[in-house]
Each structure stands twice: as C-alpha cells, then as structure tokens.
Amino acid sequence: MSNLELNRRGLLCVVSGPSGSGKTTLCRRFSEEDSSAVYATSATTRTPREGEKDGVDYFFLSREEFESRTTHGEFLEFAEVHGNYYGTLKSEVVTHIDAGRDVLMDIDVQGAALIRNQTDPVIQQAFVDIFIIPPNDEELIKRLNFRGTETQEQLDLRLKNAHEEMRHWESYQYSVVSRDKESDFATFNAIISGERCRSS
Ligand code: 5GP
Q1: Over the stretch 22-75, which tens digit does the pLDDT of each residue have?
Q2: List of residues 6+ apart from 62 with CB closer than 8 A
Q3: From ligand 1's centre to the CA of 46, what distance in Å?
Q4: What is the Å distance from ligand 1's center to 86 Cα?
Q5: Is the whole model's pTM more than 0.85, yes or no?
Q6: Closest atom of ligand 1 to CA, residue 18
Q7: Which of 39, 42, 131 has most ligand 1 atoms within 8 Å of its beta carbon, as the pocket-test mutant?
Q8: Which atom from ligand 1 is nearest to the alpha carbon of 16?
C-alpha cells in the first residue's frame, strides 16, 4: 500500500432525496459491501416502525433526550423533518473520517445545508453531497405506499415534503435520477470511487 492510501482521510458523503427515492438503501448497501465505508446511524424522535431496531436503524430518543443532547453540542447537525427531530451525532462521524473510513449520511436537505456551510476544514475537505431524484410522481407514490406503515395523512405530508425537497437538487455536487436498484447503485458506486481518487 502506498503512503497516499495510508494517509487518506475519509469522505463525508451526504445523501439526500425525498422519502421513497431509495437513498437509505443505497447508503446501507454501499456500507455493507465496502469495508472502508460506514453508515452513520442517525438519532430521531420518530416512533420506530415495525422491525426497526434501536441503534441499528436509528437511535430512538425521547424529545427531552434529543433536546438535552442538542444543548450539550452532541450533534453535527439536526433538523425537524415530517414533524420529528432527526440528527447526526458527532460520535458517528468524526473518528471514522480521521481513521480514513468514508462516512455515508442519509439526511434531509436542511441537515445537508447545515453541513455544507460548516467552516471546520476537516468537514469541508471531506464533504461530498449527492441528491437522489425519484423518476416521477407515479413511481414515488408507489414507493411511498410500499412500506404500508404510514397513515394517509403521513403519506400526504411525505409527498408534499418530497416536492419541496426536490427543489434543492441543484445545491448538490451530484444528482442521480433513480431508475432501478442496480443502475442506481452502479452510479452511486462510480461517484464515490471517483471522489476517492481526488488528489485535493
Ligand atoms: P424516515 O422517517 O423515513 O426514516 O426519514 C425521514 C427523513 O429524515 C428522510 O428524508 C431522512 O433523510 C431524514 N433523516 C434521517 N436521518 C437524518 C439526520 O440525521 N439528519 C437529518 N437532517 N435528516 C435525517
């Protein structure tokens, strides 16, 4: 292994896109298949869906605990999304980047903007952002309904928020129009592979 590879700092790869864009699946799969990448598990005040595990899918916190952690400066970013708090704990990110591991974060457009505007040079240098765009409304509605866990009211809110989120795609360095799982993953892989070769 060359010195260049040994000294490489990890990327901070921020992935956004509306619910149903497939971004979580892409991040999870990439971190499972690539041993140099880790998925940053977020904290949330949302109620766990059936089958979701604390510490794996999210760190599920009460509103009081979440707010107390924000006061103690434990979050790299946090935002209110679909009526709940979501945030990335610094502990899930910084040590990995220093150790040369790429961190994948699946976060909303508000959280991405907060990280994009950070002045910390380590974060700035590591930062890469990717927006996943669903192919069309029809497919998006199908994907939103797929889980079968949301009420009609929650689905309506997610669809409304999806249109709002989509307006931000141009703020991202990369955007991927979702087609199918395999081609989305190949494109995602190509972006990260390219970023890993960047010399500055
Ligand atoms: P869900 O409830 O479907 O798991 O996630 C809802 C939204 O919250 C998604 O758009 C997801 O990207 C966003 N989200 C998940 N974790 C975080 C986080 O740590 N920070 C921010 N800002 N958004 C997050």
Answers
A1: 999 999 999 999 999 999 999 999 999 999 999 999 999 999 999 999 999 999
A2: 45
A3: 10
A4: 6
A5: yes
A6: 10
A7: 42
A8: 12
